Amino acid sequence: MRFFTFLCAALPLVAAAPSSNSNQDNFGSYFYKGHDLSSLKTLEDTGSIFKDTARNNKTRPAEDILGDGGMNTVRLRIWVNPESGTNGLQYNLELAKRFQKKGYKLYLDFHFSDSWADPQKQPLPAGWPTTLKPLASTVRGYVKDTLVAFKKAGIKLDLVSLGNEIRHGMLWPLGYVDIDIQPDSALASNFSGLATLYKAARAGVDDAYRAGFSKTQVMIHVDNGWNVTLQQRWYGALVANGVPTSAWDVIGVSFYPFYGTSATFDNLKNSLNTLARQYRKPLQVVETDYPAICNGQWNPIPESSEPSIPYSVDGQLIWVKKVIDIVKAVPYGLGRGVHYWEPAWLNNTSLGSDCNDAILFQPDYSGWPVTVGYSRKSVNMFKEGR
Ligand SMILES: *[C@@H]1O[C@H](CO)[C@@H](O)[C@H](O)[C@H]1NC(C)=O
Ligand SMILES: *[C@@H]1O[C@H](CO)[C@@H](O)[C@H](O)[C@H]1NC(C)=O
Ligand SMILES: *[C@@H]1O[C@H](CO)[C@@H](O)[C@H](O)[C@H]1NC(C)=O
Ligand SMILES: *[C@@H]1O[C@H](CO)[C@@H](O)[C@H](O)[C@H]1NC(C)=O
Ligand SMILES: *[C@@H]1O[C@H](CO)[C@@H](O)[C@H](O)[C@H]1NC(C)=O
Questions:
Q1: pTM for the model
Q2: Quick check: is 303 catalytic?
Q3: 342 included as an active-site residue
Q4: Which atom belonging to ligand 1 lies closest to the Cα atom of 56?
Q5: Which ranges does the record mark as transmembrane (predicted)?
Q6: Among the listed residues 91, 116, 42, 38, the one whose alpha carbon sits nearest the alpha carbon of residue 371
């Protein structure tokens, strides 16, 4: 009887161990310090330039300035068939080649959409099938073809995220999920469509491996990284619907200060540490930012989830330092990266917030649409020892 009780208690751990272990230490302890530079080419194509205020306002590529500030990785979003080509395959190959040549690691963020995909919208690419089986086969082929195109272009991808902020699933409506539909049971909300589509996307990565694409780290990215309830129930439901934990390598989360006061450092710490103990997989904060300017000019000023940190350039530095510290302190050394979202987007400075400006360059619009971005000292957020 005692033995039986012991066995039952130990079972979940025993069952979880093999797949967790198979992933655990394959990726070393490299710490990714990334900037998402997806819009950079669009800006440059219309003449925008960047000036390095630490070098007498010398004009330099944005990535050189950010690289001096400690960036070692560039994150890029990829859309399936975007209207103007922006964020499409060719657009990405061009940027990726350029950044790789300069020694940066690359992280490709699949949106599985022709435009923005986030928790509020995950629109199906135009012309993709609207029934599950054909859609799964299309997404599989798309992932494979995309990764093989990177391989053929001589580009290595360190990280690949299958979907962007997929709290509510991806490829709507078939891949839609809502963990809150029946709050008492993680299994109640229907993850079966998403599970099918995720497994298909993951199979596309394996197909690419067979075609010579070299080993990458496959990530799942869910927003609200501070919400441990969401994260645990979400991954629980995915696994309960037949996605083995071996089907992803890295847990990625977003963490923003201005979408709700629960996004505290304590909540982030608790959430990441809990996930690390449960899944024993590398974790990264893959999107964050902090306003340099928030003066209520266009919208009511949203309260920061860490109100002691001012909305200012210094505040940007304090926020990111703290996020890095929290990630680096995740148990078992599983905290592996922090990425700042679109620090150079000179003509979209609010970055989806109600604040004026969360980027790392002071824009000068006097020559619009050609804009000049003067580096703020927050470009150094990833510098060691600051
Ligand atoms: C750089 O440009 C900014 C903005 O025009 C200006 O305030 C600053 O004085 C310039 N710095 C140098 C060293 O020229
Ligand atoms: C869950 O979704 C799948 C695929 O979309 C569907 O076939 C199935 O009937 C749904 N199950 C429930 C219980 O709603
Ligand atoms: C955290 O996530 C759960 C599950 O989605 C949700 O029910 C809850 O409201 C969230 N917490 C907050 C403070 O938003
Ligand atoms: C920024 O400029 C580019 C190029 O002119 C344009 O395509 C894009 O829509 C602009 N973004 C905003 C937010 O104005
Ligand atoms: C500016 O960024 C937000 C996301 O933060 C996006 O929703 C919006 O479409 C962008 N604007 C343009 C013109 O790209």
A1: 0.92
A2: no
A3: no
A4: 13
A5: none
A6: 42
